Task: inverse folding
């Protein structure tokens, strides 16, 4: 379970708590959300994996990883590896990105839900590579960038955010139909989307909105501070 550098938990309590969690956090290098966006989600996170320079990001947040994966060619502070309980080092000449390796390892260990943080900014090909991960059966479930929250929606969900916020919806490569929505200025009902279609810059009317993905999952991009409605 993720621990801060200055706050420890009794090992037994931590193990029991982690056993109740189903979500893992995968931190990649690149532009990342602020610490506040992660800290408020920590109660739902049972395991933290850093992909390469994701270790630097965790250190900036005052947190450390349970596992570090990668070739670590981008790691600014190699000394952080010594504080990590488990390190899986890979050669620089490899077929998979460090983020792919971290995601695959988390799935192999049985984590049912994976939230990816970081990976924004920098090279466009790296950003497109993360977007491509959402086409895979074992894709991330959510992606937090420096400014956005990206959710892979498989079933109807309701969210809350400031009125007037912008929400965009993208189908995956297989397209989608039978979608629905509530609380958005331009409803999604009766739309049939093939690959290449999308709904850009929709507007949240009153601070709460819901989306039904229809025949296939869709990617929903919303403000980073948008939360699941309760």
Result:
């Amino acid at each position: 379970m993720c621990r801060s550098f200055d706050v420890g938990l009794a090992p037994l309590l931590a193990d029991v708590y982690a056993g109740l969690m189903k979500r893992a956090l995968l931190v990649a290098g690149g532009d990342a959300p602020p610490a506040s966006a992660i800290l408020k989600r920590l109660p739902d996170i049972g395991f933290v994996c850093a992909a390469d320079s994701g270790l630097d990001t965790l250190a900036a947040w005052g947190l450390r990883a349970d596992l570090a994966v990668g070739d670590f060619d981008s790691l600014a502070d190699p000394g952080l590896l010594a504080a990590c309980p488990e390190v899986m080092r890979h050669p620089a000449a490899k077929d998979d990105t460090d983020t792919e390796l971290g995601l695959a390892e988390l799935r192999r260990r049985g984590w049912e839900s994976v939230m990816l943080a970081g990976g924004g900014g920098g090279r466009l090909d790296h950003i497109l590579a993360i977007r491509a991960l959402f086409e895979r059966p074992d894709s991330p479930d959510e992606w937090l960038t420096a400014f956005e929250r990206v959710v892979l929606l498989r079933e109807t969900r309701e969210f809350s955010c400031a009125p007037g916020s912008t929400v965009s919806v993208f189908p995956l490569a297989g397209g989608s139909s039978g979608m629905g929505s509530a609380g958005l200025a331009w409803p999604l009902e009766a739309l049939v989307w093939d690959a290449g279609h999308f709904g850009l810059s929709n507007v949240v009317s009153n601070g709460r909105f819901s989306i039904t993905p229809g025949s296939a999952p869709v990617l929903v991009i919303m403000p980073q501070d948008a939360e699941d409605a309760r």
